Inverse folding.
C-alpha cells in the first residue's frame, strides 16, 4: 500500500458533452499537519499513469508519490499539490488524441498503425484546456488549500500531454507560470504548434522540454525517433527566437531513452526540482 495521500474524484467535463474523468489528487507530505499552509499546484494529464502501477496503462507509473516522499525525507522543505486527470480511453485510445490536441490531424491513419482506418483525430484540446482552466482549477481551489494565483500553478504531461501542456501555457497565460512537456508528440500538429507560439508567445513563462533519442509511437515507422528529437529541438529553437531565456527553457536529451513511463519517471525528479524553484509558495511562509 502506498504511503502517500491520494484522493480520487469523478468530475464532469461540461466543456466536453459532460463526459466524466477520474481526477487523482496527491497531497504533499504534512498536508494535514499544517492546516494554515497553502500550496502551489501542478496539473498533469494521464493521471492514471502517475501514481500507481496497477492503474497505469502499461503497468509502469511515473512514481511521483515516491519521488515527492523521497524529497521530503531528504529534508527538502518545498511542497506542492499534484492533480492528475485521467485521459479519455475511448475509441481504442484515439479519444485521448482528440482531447489532447486543439488541432485535427486528418492523416493519423497513415502516421499510426493502430489508427488504421481512422480518418481524423484531435480537435477537442481547446475545450479540454477550458475544462482545466475554467472548471478544474476553481474546483481544486475550493476543495484544497491552494495558492490561487498563476505564479503558483504549473501544467505538465508526456507525449500528447506535452503538446497540450505547451498549448495551455500560452493559450491561458493568466493561469500558469510554467509547463512541463515530456517527450512531446509535436509530430501530431507541429506546424500548428509553431503558429500558436508565434501568435501567443509572451515573456515571463518557463518551459521544460525533454526527449529520448530512441522514442517512437509506432515501431513499424522507422522515422519516429528522428522526428521526436528534431521536433523538440525545433520547438526549443523557436522559443529561443521568440526571446525565451535559456534559464527558463531547459531541454533534456536522454541518450537511448524510449517513449514510456519508466523514462518519464527517471526525468520527473529533475523537472519537479526545476519547477519548484519557480513556483511561488513552494516554501513555507512564501505565500502572500
Amino acid at each position: 500500500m502506498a504511503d502517500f495521500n491520494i484522493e480520487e474524484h469523478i468530475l464532469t467535463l461540461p466543456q466536453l458533452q459532460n463526459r466524466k474523468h477520474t481526477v487523482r489528487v496527491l497531497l504533499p507530505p504534512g498536508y494535514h499537519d499544517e492546516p494554515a499552509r497553502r500550496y502551489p499546484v501542478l496539473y498533469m494529464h494521464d493521471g492514471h499513469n502517475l501514481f500507481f502501477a496497477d492503474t497505469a496503462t502499461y503497468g509502469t507509473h511515473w512514481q511521483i508519490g515516491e519521488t515527492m516522499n523521497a524529497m521530503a525525507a531528504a529534508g527538502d522543505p518545498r511542497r506542492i499539490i499534484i492533480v492528475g486527470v485521467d485521459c479519455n480511453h475511448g475509441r481504442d485510445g484515439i479519444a485521448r488524441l482528440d482531447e489532447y490536441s486543439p488541432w485535427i490531424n486528418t492523416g493519423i491513419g497513415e502516421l499510426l498503425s493502430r489508427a488504421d482506418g481512422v480518418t481524423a483525430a484531435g480537435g477537442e484540446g481547446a475545450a479540454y484546456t477550458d475544462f482545466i482552466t475554467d472548471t478544474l482549477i476553481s474546483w481544486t481551489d475550493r476543495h484544497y488549500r491552494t495558492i490561487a494565483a498563476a505564479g503558483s500553478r504549473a501544467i505538465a504531461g508526456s507525449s500528447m500531454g506535452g503538446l497540450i501542456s505547451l498549448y495551455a501555457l500560452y493559450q491561458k497565460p493568466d493561469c500558469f507560470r510554467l509547463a512541463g512537456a515530456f517527450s512531446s508528440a509535436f509530430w501530431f500538429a507541429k506546424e500548428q504548434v509553431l503558429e500558436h507560439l508565434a501568435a501567443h508567445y509572451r515573456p515571463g513563462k518557463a518551459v521544460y522540454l525533454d526527449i529520448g533519442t530512441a522514442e517512437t509511437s509506432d515501431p513499424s515507422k522507422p522515422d519516429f525517433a528522428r522526428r521526436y528529437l528534431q521536433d523538440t529541438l525545433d520547438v526549443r529553437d523557436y522559443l529561443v527566437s521568440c526571446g525565451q531565456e535559456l534559464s527558463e527553457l531547459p531541454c533534456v536529451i536522454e541518450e537511448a531513452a524510449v517513449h514510456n513511463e519508466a523514462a518519464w519517471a527517471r526525468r520527473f525528479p529533475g523537472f519537479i526540482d526545476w519547477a519548484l524553484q519557480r513556483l511561488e509558495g513552494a516554501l513555507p511562509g512564501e505565500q502572500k
